[in-house]
Amino acid sequence: MDDSGGGTRIQRRNRARILDAAIEVFAAEGFRGATLDGLAKAAGLSKPNLLYYFASKEAVYVALLDTLLDTWLDPLRALDADGEPMAEMLAYVHRKLELARDYPRESRLFAGEILRGAPMLESELRDLRAMVDEKAAVIAGWMEAGRLARLDPHHLVFSIWALTQHYADFEAQVRAVLGRNRDPWSEAEQELEVHFRRVLAP
Questions:
Q1: What letter would DSSP give residue 116?
Q2: For the chain, does the N or the C end have fewer beta carbons within 10 angstroms?
Q3: Domains of the chain from N-terminus onward
Q4: What is the pLDDT of residues 72-111, one digit of tens each?
């Protein structure tokens, strides 16, 4: 995942390299099991070189989670208040599923932090709440106008997260149940469109 911080091209490249490596290390070892030595080795840098960019393991982890959360919010940001409600909601479902498909390690890493109680994400979760509140108000307006079924918009967003991210966070389980001859992602895309179209129909 790219890092857009300041500095020279080499500095930006090294920061991105560290964060890319950190996804693998934290996903495999967890936050407590990961070490600075392990992060540096995975990034192909010396430990002092890594510490030039990040002051601690915690700093790497927080930068990574901050980048992930920003990426995770992109599909919700794209929800257009001026669009056709059903089309906007189904497009949101598809964008969330595509994100889970394309970034499964990141999805599992983020889920792991939430399961730990999100101790490193307190301020970022306030940003998440603000974004969800803003879009929930848009969805509620569509429901009040009779353009979508009346549901709690926050819980509707939760259900979209649960049904899309499940395919990344529990991919091994999904593939074990479906078998190796089926494509869970293409099947999920079809099934979730049918599901949410029915749920949201006014």
A1: T
A2: C
A3: 1-55 (1.10.10.60), 64-200 (1.10.357.10)
A4: 889 999 999 999 999 999 999 999 999 999 999 888 888 8
